[in-house]
């Protein structure tokens, strides 16, 4: 690329009317595109050599970030949970009340049955509590009468169901929860709910046989989620 040679001029005399300048060839300097680029903010016009050089002024590119809530909602995972109304809830006639809490919340019922639990199944269900001193009493309680087995599904159903049910000790459960409203003692706390998505699947597989679950489309779903 060609370089432009400029000889700087130095003032030889200064007066109130005129100012004379003499050019000094010996002190000439070479003006390169690089040096013009550094002084570019002082120039009124862009240098001509920018048209032929590979240099391009940097521009701030702002990329738009698009948020689509309906796409995010569609990617949320649908969980399954096992809910069981214990013998005390059945004997007290609370089955309809408890089911309606989950229905009004908007979760989908996929399995439901009234069932007399055998001892072996109760022991398998509560096997994590075998070392507890109350384990024999717990098994006697669960097998003392029929229970209502339910499978529910929905986005976040496991965590939400735990909130609907309330704390294990009904005296510590918040008003508005099932145990907070309908129970007074841990040994008679009316209802069981899975504590994790994995346990939800395991317990549903434990309490329901193949063919007892129903896969169906709820017409209200578009009115619950985007």
UniProtKB/TrEMBL annotation:
Its cofactor is Mg(2+). It is an enzyme of class 2 (transferase). Belongs to the NDK family. Residues 78-215 form the Nucleoside diphosphate kinase-like domain. This is Nucleoside diphosphate kinase. SMART domains: NDK. One of its GO terms (molecular function) is nucleoside diphosphate kinase activity. It comes from the Eukaryota. ATP binds at residues 86, 134, 162, 168, 179, 189.
């Amino acid at each position: 690329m060609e370089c432009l040679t400029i000889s700087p001029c130095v003032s030889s005399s200064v007066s109130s009317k005129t100012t004379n300048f003499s050019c000094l060839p010996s002190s000439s300097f070479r003006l390169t595109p690089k040096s013009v680029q550094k002084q570019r903010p002082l120039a009124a016009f862009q240098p001509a050599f920018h048209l032929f050089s590979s240099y391009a002024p940097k521009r701030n590119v702002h990329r738009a970030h698009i948020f689509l809530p309906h796409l995010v909602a569609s990617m949320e995972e649908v969980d399954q949970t096992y809910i069981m109304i214990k013998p005390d809830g059945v004997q007290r006639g609370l089955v309809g009340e408890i089911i309606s809490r989950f229905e009004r919340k908007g979760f989908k019922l996929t399995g439901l049955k009234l069932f007399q639990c055998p001892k072996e199944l109760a022991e398998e269900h509560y096997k994590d509590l075998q070392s507890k001193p109350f384990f024999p009493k717990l098994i006697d309680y669960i097998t003392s009468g029929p229970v209502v087995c339910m499978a529910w599904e929905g986005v976040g159903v496991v965590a939400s169901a735990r909130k609907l049910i309330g704390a294990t000790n009904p005296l510590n459960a918040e008003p508005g929860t099932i145990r907070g409203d309908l129970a007074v003692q841990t040994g008679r706390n009316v209802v069981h709910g899975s504590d994790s998505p994995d346990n939800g699947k395991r317990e549903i597989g434990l309490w329901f046989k193949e063919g007892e679950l129903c896969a169906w489309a709820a017409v209200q779903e578009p009115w619950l989620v985007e």
